[in-house]
Amino acid sequence: MTITERVAQLRRARTPFVHATVVRAQQPASAHAGDEAILLSDGTIEGFVGGHCAQNSVRTAALGALQAGESVLLRVLPDGDVHYPEAPGACVVVNPCLSGGALEIFLAPQVPPPLIRVCGATPIAEALASMCTVLGYDVMRDDMRDDEADFAQATAVVIATHGGPEAQMIRAALEAGVGYVGLVASKVRGQALLDDLDLTEEQRRRVHTPVGLPIGAKTPAEIAVSILAEVIRAIRVDDRAAAPAETRREDACHGHG
Fold first, then answer.
1. What is the per-residue DSSP string for 185-231?
2. 124 against 55, higher pLDDT
């Protein structure tokens, strides 16, 4: 399987990875310009972008780029005189065991967009699915029975069925580890449904009903906007528990391997 085929396969499977490409090589480095590799989140390297010592540095920087979600130009240099000038967007590692030569490797993280599962065939569900596409999110439509619920890989689940097996869907989404579960329902009906589920405090924090930010939405499209605004906040703000991206990048780029 070629690197191009492997990239397509990983994207279809929504698997995060880093695409590494050698853009410049100084002899006697073992890699050459144009060499490519795929780096997975477990540190696996598929392809070739340098020898053993270079691979250690590439792996460390690639994992940092994947966490930060930002591309980086990695310069792998031997001890001694450095011929590549510093530049914004690049980081340098020095490998004492490198047998001469230097490499510049472009690391491009490929992180799948959020996957929003929209349950229901209502006007709100239709509007929500359309707006997810506009935002560049992956969207999956479901008008399912409770025994068909499978929310694996979903970033957020919005239940807009106005009835049916809503409780079972909420339970299935929570058990799948979904971070945001939204239920389109009135405050009274939503609270009654959640009370019947007997959720833990942690599970209750992940369920949003009435769903959406309070912006006075009335039409299905306006309600969809309020829901997506809340989903975006959950993804971009509420889940921001790791170190800032710049800190992660600095740590990754200044590792030695």
1. S-HHHHHHHHHHHT--HHHHHHEESS-S--S---SHHHHHHHHHHHH
2. 124
